[in-house]
Inverse folding.
DNA sequence: AGCGGAACCTGTCGGC
DNA sequence: TGCCGACAGGTTCCGC
């Protein structure tokens, strides 16, 4: 569900609720959400800790405690955070419940594609190994993309979704970026020129910045903390717009499936 | 190594 | 109303 702009939005709001606060209790109703980590290791590691910082790497939310310990939270497709009063019942698909002074924080995830992990040392946290370039970092350049796309016959749309290349893009923003850059989603990675790679870099940053400033995109599942919606859906140009006119040329937007995911594009404005 | 496809889950929506 | 298939902001695993 959430891509980089949604995760950024959630982090900003989580900071307002739990930064500098102490976790008094922790329940994990379904241990499988920890993906093999012992539930006792998680709950013991977390209980009594104060959250000193909240950060992001790719689509992972990072809670940092004193020292180098902390928590990784990936929201999968449907994960969301909701504040409840201590006497309220947990929602049906609660993956975790954290007790704070005066309120509880629930992590609710209907499809359970998300994940939680306690780490002693962030440098050793396995999910963070091998995550690719952050779009707003200086290592994310046209030269970097050219190098990563070299000899890759896979569609550029699928390469944009590859978290080991670029951190944080998902299906909505990959389609929007390719539309703005004028590149067909099925275009083979190795055929991207230096100037096209430059366009990808610029439009990636621009789309993400705009989406962050509008609190992300809410189409169906994504919710900010406490069920609030984002607003960037009002600014999407192609995603989920099959059959609607292209905002640039009026031709009908098409949908194709590649890598098992839908891509939306204009066959006239986006070149192969 | 890299690729395509299936699997993991639950919910919703559209068609018949 | 009800059933069925398609599809959903993601990732990982498996076989070629």
């Amino acid at each position: 569900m959430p891509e980089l702009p949604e995760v950024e939005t959630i982090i900003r709001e989580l900071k307002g609720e739990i930064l500098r606060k102490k976790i008094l209790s922790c329940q994990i109703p379904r241990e499988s959400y920890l993906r093999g980590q012992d539930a006792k290791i998680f709950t013991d590691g977390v209980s009594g800790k104060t959250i000193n910082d909240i950060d992001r790497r790719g689509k992972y939310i990072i809670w940092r405690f004193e020292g180098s310990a902390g928590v990784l939270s990936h929201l999968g497709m449907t994960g969301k955070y909701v504040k409840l009063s201590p006497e309220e019942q947990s929602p049906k698909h609660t993956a975790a419940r954290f007790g704070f002074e005066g309120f509880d924080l629930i992590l609710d995830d209907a499809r359970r594609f998300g994940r939680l992990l306690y780490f002693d040392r962030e440098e050793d946290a396995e999910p963070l190994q091998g995550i690719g370039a952050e779009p707003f970092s200086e290592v994310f350049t046209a030269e970097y993309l050219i190098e990563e796309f070299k000899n890759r016959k896979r569609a550029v749309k699928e390469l944009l979704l590859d978290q080991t290349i670029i951190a944080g893009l998902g299906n909505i923003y990959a389609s929007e970026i390719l539309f703005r850059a004028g590149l067909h989603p099925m275009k083979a990675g190795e055929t991207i020129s230096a100037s096209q790679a430059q366009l990808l870099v610029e439009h990636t940053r621009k789309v993400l910045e705009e989406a962050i400033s509008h609190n992300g995109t809410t189409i169906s599942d994504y919710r900010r903390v406490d069920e609030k919606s984002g607003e960037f859906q009002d600014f999407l140009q192609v995603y989920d717009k099959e059959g609607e006119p292209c905002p640039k040329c009026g031709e009908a937007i098409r949908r194709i499936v590649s890598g098992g995911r839908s891509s939306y594009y204009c066959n006239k404005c986006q070149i192969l």
Observations:
- The longest helix of chain A spans residues 194-213.
- Residues 1-3, 5-6, 59, 74-78, 111, 113-115, 161, 163, 170-173, 216-222, 239, 261-262 of chain A lie near DNA strand C (CB under 10 Å from a C1').
